[in-house]
Design a protein that fits this description.
Length: 215
């Protein structure tokens, strides 16, 4: 239902560099694969897809292990399938910052949190409060705080040179995905958090099998 919006938010980015879109489809039972194939055909030099024949998540397997070897760019940005980027200059702004500030491992920004009807969700009901620009440090991650929601993060590609044992430990760590990423990244540097709101994070609250709906 939302995959087109996620892909369009990525493909509208105005950048002066080449980027790839790596999509992991975990054997979607709906029309998602057909939509992905449509985009794959239209943007063959940009979109790279990993299609699973059977759903791995239902077996307790992390999707990360199936796509980590596809992450070969200098930087990595994240956008889950029901979120979307809203600012066409998002990637360029974050990459420019990281190019100029090598001491930072990542850059993040504010997100707007909405429900399936595009209504803004009250801040009391989610952890992603609007903030002013600040620096997210290792001690923040160890207090189980988050720099922002995953759709906001662009980080240096640590996976290319990280010890395989560390990657395996990371993959097998059964905890919240954005939490363990924040802990791992801040071992390599701080995360600069822009005040700009450049993405929408969607929480499906009324129906379906999404994590948000279930809780």
């Amino acid at each position: 239902k939302y995959i087109r919006e996620a892909l369009d938010g990525i493909l509208m980015q105005k950048v002066n560099f080449h980027y790839e879109v790596v999509i992991h489809d975990d054997a979607s039972p709906d029309n998602t694969q057909n939509i992905i194939r449509e985009y794959e055909k239209k943007y063959p030099d940009i979109i790279k897809v990993i299609y699973q024949a059977e759903n791995k998540y239902s077996k307790g397997e992390s999707a990360f292990q199936y796509y980590v070897d596809y992450l070969i760019g200098e930087y990595i940005a994240i956008c889950e399938g029901d979120d979307y980027w809203t600012n066409p200059n998002k990637l360029q702004k974050q990459v420019d910052f990281l190019d100029k500030n090598p001491e930072y491992i990542a850059a993040a920004h504010n997100v707007r949190v909405i429900n399936e009807n595009y209504e803004v969700i009250n801040e009391d009901l989610h952890p992603y409060k609007i903030f002013h620009e600040y620096i997210f440090k290792r001690e923040d991650a160890f207090k189980l705080k988050l720099p922002s929601q995953l759709a906001s993060i662009v980080y240096r590609n640590i996976w290319l040179n990280l010890d395989k044992k560390i990657i395996k430990l990371y993959n097998n760590c059964k905890t919240n995905g954005d939490q363990k990423l924040a802990v791992l990244l801040t071992n390599f540097g701080s995360i600069y958090c822009f005040k700009d709101v450049m993405a929408d994070h969607r929480k499906i609250t009324s129906h379906g099998t999404s994590w948000s709906a279930r809780i």
